[in-house]
Specification:
The protein is mainly α and about 140 residues long. The chain has 2 helices and no strands. It is rod-shaped.
């Protein structure tokens, strides 16, 4: 996930570090010249090599910190997406449960209507049987 639009944490850290390293290198070069050391000399080259190692260490540290931060931000983004997906799943499940409950109530109403129709038919059959028995006796 970008820190700013189109920029990763690693890029952001490195973009802040580079100007600082350039200033330090320029200051070192000026200090060495002020001390009477000239480019190409052994002492000058040794100091510049130490500076290059410090710069390399700082760049490596910054890169690793940026990568770690980028990975953390990616993990956070994935966790947020997972949370949103969980909410969507819970909503769908609740809707499914409500639909299933509605179907259950509908089925109960159908069964109740069937039982009432069966009872009415049974009562009608009994009335017909009673009428038949009365006519038979008559």
């Amino acid at each position: 996930m970008p820190v700013n639009a189109g920029m990763t944490a690693q890029n952001a850290i490195m973009s802040r570090l580079e100007p600082q390293l350039q200033r330090e290198r320029a200051q070192l070069e000026q200090r060495l010249v002020n001390q009477g050391l000239r480019p190409g000399g052994e002492a000058y080259n040794a100091e510049m090599e130490l500076q290059a190692q410090r710069e390399n260490d700082l760049r490596t540290q910054a890169a690793l910190q940026g990568i770690s931060l980028d990975a953390s931000m990616r993990q956070q983004g994935l966790a947020e997406q997972q949370t949103l997906a969980d909410f969507a799943n819970q909503a769908a499940l609740a809707q499914f449960g409500a639909g299933a409950q509605g179907l259950g109530l509908y089925n109960e109403a159908l069964a109740q209507n069937f039982q009432q129709s069966l009872a009415a038919q049974s009562a009608q059959n009994m009335a017909q049987q009673q009428a038949f028995q009365q006519r038979l006796q008559a």
